[in-house]
Amino acid sequence: MGNNGSTRASRKPSERSSRKKPADGVSRRALLIGGGAVVAAGTVAVLVRDEVKRAWWRVPGVEKPRKAGELDYAGATWVAASEANWRRADRPDDFGIDRVIIHVTQGSFDSAVRVFQDPAHRAATHYIVGQDGRVVQMIRELDVAYQAGNRSFNERAVGIEHEGFVDRPKDLTKAMYESSARLTASICARYGIPIDREHIIGHVEVPGTDHTDPGPHWDWDRYLKLVRRAATAPPTPAPTASATASASASASASAKAE
Fold first, then answer.
1. Are 126 and 183 in contact (CB under 8 A)?
2. Arithmetic mean of pLDDT, 62-78
3. Which of 7, 148, 191, 253 could pair covalently with 153 via S-S, beta carbons 3.0-4.6 A apart?
4. Is pTM, for the whole model, over 0.85?
């Protein structure tokens, strides 16, 4: 997994004076000084604004506010993953989100929660869906989850784990398919992701991966039909705060107990 920072090559004074900057370039000084930069044209002003959005986390001491336990999907409960298993970001401003990646845990729901809370694991997805349809969110969608073994795909995708084993078709339950489809439809609606096999993919389809999930028993035709149906269905009521807190505490406790 890559470094969160950026490398900046130094340049000799003679090089700085002799080389012209590109007409549409944005200097590091313009990014760091912000309001002190004088912008000569509207196009450059837009570029500066966009680059500041994308590079906010590179500027020392600058960090956007976060609310602990905040959900992106109302049907989920929150159980935080270890900070070693994801990278802080500001998606979709710094990295556009254009994929949903489908995973299978190769284990139980509780064991997946437990390993995503383990800093030594160095991997996690944004969500886990259980065989009973319950959904836990462990990483905010605006952050980059170490999920796919491919930095580019990590930066542009939301990942969903599903409880079970790839060689046991009975693990892929009706409740799981339907719950996951509602979650994926919600993600696609938030980021304008097309509901098709180019943009909703399996972990096995990520370039460079050595994983095989979600496996040969995952029914893609069925799943995409459910996602499209969920995308056109009326929204379901959000859970109450007390119910969400209770479910979150229950999921966290069961993971620790295993």
1. no
2. 85
3. 148
4. no
